[in-house]
Amino acid sequence: VRNLIREGKTLQIPTVLQTGKKAGMQSLDDAILDHLEHGRISAEDAYVHCLEASRFRAFLSNVSDDDLYYLR
Fold it and tell me: Between the CA atoms of 18, 23, 24 and 27, what dihedral angle is there, to the nearest 10 degrees?
């Protein structure tokens, strides 16, 4: 990952994280999802801080589409 950053190839980082899961690597969204599933954070906090919002919309069942705009 350090090399990818140095070489300006940051778009490849998610792929490296995905393939490095067995070695303990995880994306920010995976870490947020883990905290959400264990009840350590609210669905709103997860949605606000995640990178890929579509992964977290399903957890926001009581929030309207208009409110989603203001959360991000």
Answer: -20
Is residue 2 within 8 A of residue 25, CB to CB? The reply is: no
Q: Is the separation of the CB atoms in 59 and 43 below 8 Å?
A: yes
Contacts of 14 (CB under 8 A, 6+ apart): 27
* pLDDT, tens digit, 9 for 90 and up, residues 57-71: 888 877 666 666 666
Residue linked to tokens 């959400």:
36
CA–CA separation, 29 vs 39, rounded Å?
Answer: 15
- Residue 34 tokens, joined: 């883990």
Residue 20 has φ and ψ, to the nearest 5°, of -95, 10
